[in-house]
Request: fold
Amino acid sequence: MYICKVRVPVREVALRRKSPLRESRRPPTGRQPASAPDLILSHMNTILIAAGIILVCMAIAYFAYRHRHYIQFSKENLKANIGKVFDEAGEKAMPRQDFLMKLKDVCGCTQKQAVMLLGEARKAGLIAVEGKDVRLPE
Reply:
């Protein structure tokens, strides 16, 4: 019996596939192939290290965000800062935008935080807001 159009007997083809010469062509590596548990452990260690790095990066990002967006203030500190803003202006009333810019400079905060401080000062009665003007209460 012959395979395809080439006249090679089937028995010879089978012998060629199983020949030890083909096996010996591969150069020896000098180490044994890793067993399944060793491969699983090495992949598990890699996954744990990657997960740890990701968790550390997420924690750093969270604390950086929280540090930037968290402002502490006390009523006394806010009153002193508002006093500084009006002392620099030399007036008892000023436009709301000018007040916010100066409050932002005095407190060293963002525009959004300055607006929040404006609201807290208004609630505490430290300032009075009338339309687009801000003034000290009488």
